[in-house]
Amino acid sequence: MESLSNAAVRADYTAVRDPDHLACLESIDAPVRLLVAARVGPVRLIDNLGAAPPAIN
Question: What fold does the segment set 4-51 form as a domain?
């Protein structure tokens, strides 16, 4: 069995979007939704994650 470190990983898409409407953003100054789809060998993985920009002091 091929280990994950040797598996071919190919990103289909990545995106940073508005968390409520998934609209495109011009800047990141509030919480966002990170979207990704990738292929690991023959398997397509799709996921999303809420994230916030770091605080600026």
Answer: Pantoate--beta-alanine Ligase; Chain: A,domain 2 (3.30.1300)
